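Could you help me review a protein record that somebody else here produced? Do not assume that whoever made the record got everything right. The record follows directly below this note.
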Amino acid sequence: MDLDLVRHALAAARRNGYAEVELGEGESSFTARLARAPKAKATLATAETPKEDAPQEIRATLVGFYRETKEPLAIGRTIRKGETVATIEALGIVTDVSSKVEGEVIEVLVEPGQAVEYGQALAVVKP
């Protein structure tokens, strides 16, 4: 089964709020159940505007296993917006986690190989 097809189906399912994806091609099949972020929490996050100097979190973009990059997340590391700071492996597919914040890592909340959930905080960054 084509991995690009699987990635596309998972992305489309997340965008459209589907809870499950089933794909089949010949003798191959693929089924995934997607975690949903709680609606109340999402509403709260959009209603609050974080203070510029308040610590911010780098969050997991999908469910899977946390993997370090060549330069692991570590206390004191300076990161830039858009920089790949980790990867998450799910179903044999490795996906980059890009930072949406810029600053210095003040706390790392996960260990390599640890299972993570969608939206789980991976690290805390001080702008």
